[in-house]
Amino acid sequence: MNEQDAKRRRSERPVKKKKDAALTAPKKLKLLFTVVDRKKAELYADLLSEYSVNLQIVLAGEGTAKTETLRLLGLDDTERAMIVSVIRDDKAPAIFEMLGEKFESVRGGKGIAWSVPMTSAVGVAIYQFLSDYREGQLPPQGQTKGGNGK
Amino acid sequence: MTFSHECIVCIVNTGFSDAVMDAAREFGARGGTVIHGRGTVSREAERFFGITIQPDKELVLILVPRDLTDKILHALYRAVGLKTPGQGIAFSLPVDQVVGLSTFSAEENGEQKDAAGSTEPND
């Protein structure tokens, strides 16, 4: 058997296709800011932690609404908490839906939340932590390189 | 990609958050959140430039409709910019989703926008 025959046989071999699951793009991340009454901070932090949120920072803040407005509404308390959470892009719709519903239904739990897209994160382990990476859920390490896979 | 709202972050010396909100309200902002922080600065740079930076800071976060951002940032620059006692810096971040804004905010902002549009900047 000469070299040309060997080459031809190699080219005729069926090519093994990679599994589709391995081609899934990494999840993008967002920074979610939730401003609520300070007494309700723990409640909202707990609610958010149910949505694959691994990192949350609760900051003590103050609202700036005018005193007259507050007095009219019976809301003299200006103490607020700002919860900064790193969320996954694919979880955002569910999180916003949950927050919208809770802002309406929880007594004294009115608040506001918004998200800012994150453009990069450095380190595979950091990305896996922030995106709540679990074995088999996301592509292998090599494909998560470069942060959020933008 | 364009979004409907932006988050203005203004970092000023402690005690100037009211000045920030006053300037922002003038151009249609409705409310904000103040967080106390501590700034860090290079001691060597301070000595070199012959200035002292007050370390206690206030961060004011204001969520505003996108079309008001430029006007408010300009107002903040004039009211609490680096050349004022507030020694503030301000920047905006794109906001892709919002929940919890009052339902009448759009209407009210529209009125304020008109009012803001008729005011010419001084400089």
Low-confidence stretches of chain B: 104-123
Number of domains of chain B: 1
| Spatial order of strands in the largest sheet of chain A | 2-3-1-4
Helix content of chain B: 25-40%
Mean pLDDT of chain B: 82
CATH C-level of chain A: Alpha Beta
Helix content of chain A: 25-40%
Q: How many individual β-strands of chain A? A: 4
User: Can you name the CATH architecture of chain B?
Assistant: 2-Layer Sandwich
The CATH topology of chain B turns out to be Alpha-Beta Plaits
CATH domain topology of chain A:
Alpha-Beta Plaits
Q: Please tell me the CATH architecture of chain A by its name.
A: 2-Layer Sandwich
The count of helical stretches of chain B stands at 4
Strand order in the sheet with the most strands of chain B: 2-3-1-4
CATH C-level class of chain B: Alpha Beta
Instruction: Note poorly predicted spans of chain A.
Output: 140-150
Q: Report the β-strand fraction of chain B as a percent range.
A: 25-35%
Structural class of chain B: alpha+beta
Q: How would you name the oligomeric state of the polypeptide chains in this document?
A: heterodimer
